[in-house]
Amino acid sequence: MSPTALLATVKGLALSGSGASLGAMGVFFAKAGALTFGSGLAIVPFLHQGLVDDHHWLTDVDAVAMGLISPGPVVLMATFAGYLVWGIAGAVVATIAVFLPVYFFVVAPGRLFRRYEEHPRLKGFVKGATAAAAGAIAGAAIVIAQQTITGPTSAAIGLVALGVLLQPLRKVPEPAVVAVAACAGLLLH
C-alpha cells in the first residue's frame, strides 16, 4: 500500500476528535433521542440548532451534506454527525446516546404502557405528542427548504417534483424523482 493510500485510509477512519467533549456530545444526542417522537424528521431542527448554531461542531454545508448522503432513518444522521465531530469514538457515543432514551422511555417500561393503553390521559398525551411531532416535521421541512431552495429555479424543480410525487394516478418511485431533479438542477445551474 502506498503512503498516500495509507494516509487517506487513516484520515478516513478518524480516531480523534475536533476538540468537542465526548460527554457534551453524548448529552446532546441523548436529548435529541428523547425529544424525537413520531418520525425521525422531528430530530432535524434540533440537530441543526445544536450541531450548527449552538455548539458550532458542524457548518451549514456539513449539515446539508450529512442529511443528503446519510442512508436509512434520519435518526442515524446522529452516527454520521458524531463521526464528523469526533471520529469513530464520536460515532459510537452519538449512536448509543441517541437510542438510549428510546430504550429507557419506551422499550423498558413497554409492558406498563400496554397495561394502561386505554387510559384517557395516556391517550390525550399521545394525541398531543403526535401533534407536536407534526409541528416538528413541518419545522424540519422549513429548515431543509431554507438550505436547498436558493432561487426560482430550485423552487420550480421542487414544485414539479412535489407534483409528480402527489399524482394519484401513477406512483413514481421517490429515488427516480430525486435523480431526475438532481439532473435538472445540474443542467439548469
Low-confidence stretches: 6-13
Radius of gyration: 20 Å
Helix content: over 70%
- The separation of the N and C termini measures 40 Å
Q: Structural class, please?
A: mainly alpha
- Global outline: globular
Main sheet makeup: none
Number of helices: 9
Tell me the strand percentage band. under 5%
Number of strands: 0
Overall number of structural domains: 2
Average pLDDT works out at 80
User: What order do the SSEs take from the amino end to the carboxyl end, as H and E?
Assistant: HHHHHHHHH
Task: Describe, in plain words, how this protein is organized in 3D.
- The protein has 189 residues and is mainly α.
- The chain has two domains: 146 residues, no CATH class; 40 residues, no CATH class.
- Helices cover 74% and strands 0% of the residues.
- The protein has nine helices and no strands.
- Helix 2 packs across helix 5 and helix 8 packs antiparallel against helix 9.
- The longest helix is centred in the middle third of the chain and has 31 residues.
- The termini are far apart.
- About 4% of the residues have low confidence.
SSE arrangement:
Layout lengths: L2 H10 L9 H14 L8 H11 L5 H10 L7 H31 L2 H6 L4 H29 L3 H14 L8 H15 L1
Helix pairs in contact: 2-5, 8-9
